[in-house]
């Protein structure tokens, strides 16, 4: 199974949101990482055939998805960025309703709904209406509805938005179990979401795919370039102007900085293991560093 993105460019009224994206995806988990406005949602909406690219095409097993139509949708599961479900449906009713739309027979639907409610931890509230759900619960029901047809391709736009830390961990577990024989693409601007689950990370910056690599290959790029050092508070301005700073930590009157630099930034600096947060800062920069 293969999904191929070929020369995909997308314009919104003259604004180029995606610039000539090329990439091939085989089964595995892909983390699409980029700051707000990088083009993640646009790319995902093209991959689920909700919008057509201005240029280029997407191929599923060598066939253009726009020509496959319904046959492509049959193998697709999608959690949009804005997902609310139907307020007056209970969790169970909603999933059964979507199962019906996806063409599952009653018996398959009933067992699948039960299995998915359990998987996302919503069995206890299955008789509750969605309008009473928290943001995290809505996200989880959204993930469950995307999985109803046991899709080969699962596309999750910010699946962890609104989830608390334990829900995030649960989601990682769900995704890792699913990954065999599926192409799973999840978008996020939160590094820790993908650090542990992604087989490959796609870095999107201002509409361009700037990296496609395994987390360890990305981390390897910053080998011997991440430093921890202590400075005085008044030196902060100088360091944050001259270096990419990935963490600032106040320690009494001193400040402990984590910075990315090819050269040792000062005598006291100690080399430390790169983390995905360093990768993010290296490629996307940070807001102005302040205490
Ligand atoms: N319908 C639209 N009309 C005009 N411009 C749009 C439209 N949708 C998105 N854009 C612009 O295209 C760019 C990419 O948007 P997109 O939503 O794909 O980014 P994103 O990486 O998903 O961002 P976020 O993390 O904030 O969701 C942004 O500059 C956005 O303002």
Automatic annotation (TrEMBL):
Keyword field contains ATP-binding: yes
Single GO term (MF): ATP binding
InterPro entries referenced in this protein's UniProt entry, alphabetically: AAA+_ATPase, ABC_transporter-like_ATP-bd, ABC_transporter-like_CS, P-loop_NTPase
Domain ABC transporter, first and last residues per copy: 3-231
Keywords carried by this UniProt record: ATP-binding, Nucleotide-binding, Transport
Pfam short name (any one): ABC_tran
CDD domains, sorted: ABC_drug_resistance_like
Domain of life, per lineage: Bacteria
Family of this protein: Belongs to the ABC transporter superfamily.
Protein name: ABC transporter ATP-binding protein
Organism: Ureibacillus suwonensis
